[in-house]
């Protein structure tokens, strides 16, 4: 039996350790560059927009004068839009995931459906805007309303929620299902009382990311023809509205330098809105993680 050459082993170990240090340095530099870019953006946004964050900014409507421009209509419109997007997308997405994982037969047709759902998650958002314009605005005559925009944005994030919900449901151990069946529970009782509660943390994680994308999207709303500046608040789901990303986009493209500072203030409000929305979802997720 030939003995192992320790010299050769040590040489190989040294080369591997050197290569490991090189890649570690590269990855650390990439991470540091990304964090540095983020810090620079945050510092610039806060330094430019903090001075415009006052009561008048939240209480005024849009204006062509920077000192009178406010975000009231856009903020309320974004809240109305999320009240449509969240229930529609989560109910349809989770329901589809339950059917595909628990009820649908595993054959070529279901694999074809799942493949197309995964592909839809990578489709550019402007394509969904064209789809919403054709179906909801023109075919169903919903106009430039909250419902039309909400349904369009729900289609945009629906594939992400379906895929995330499928992964979360698939991760629930089969032993828990079998134990429920052994206690005499029906399939629906097992899904609602065993599978879904255990899968809620994963479902909410995907939903948080999807809803965050919907809040920050602008392209589909531009295609739908949603107005940028409004001087009134929406009075229902069929009313016209505007959103924070649209308002920020309009301010950022204006030539006056003051509007760049107003846009920065709007970005701060949008970030706070996203943080609050995500915090609520994370609290719900953590609550279920402790129980299951």
UniProtKB/TrEMBL annotation:
It holds the Pfam family BPD_transp_1. It comes from the Bacteria. CDD domains: TM_PBP2. Residues 75-280 form the ABC transmembrane type-1 domain. GO terms for biological process: phosphate ion transmembrane transport. One of its GO terms (cellular component) is plasma membrane. InterPro entries: MetI-like, MetI-like_sf, Phosphate_PstA. One of its GO terms (molecular function) is phosphate transmembrane transporter activity. Keywords: Cell membrane, Membrane, Transmembrane, Transmembrane helix, Transport. It is found in: Cell membrane. The chain crosses the membrane at residues 73-100, 120-140, 146-169, 190-211, 261-284. It is a multi-pass membrane protein. Belongs to the binding-protein-dependent transport system permease family. CysTW subfamily. This is Phosphate transport system permease protein PstA. It comes from Lysinibacillus halotolerans. The lineage of its organism: Bacteria, Bacillati, Bacillota, Bacilli, Bacillales. The gene is pstA.
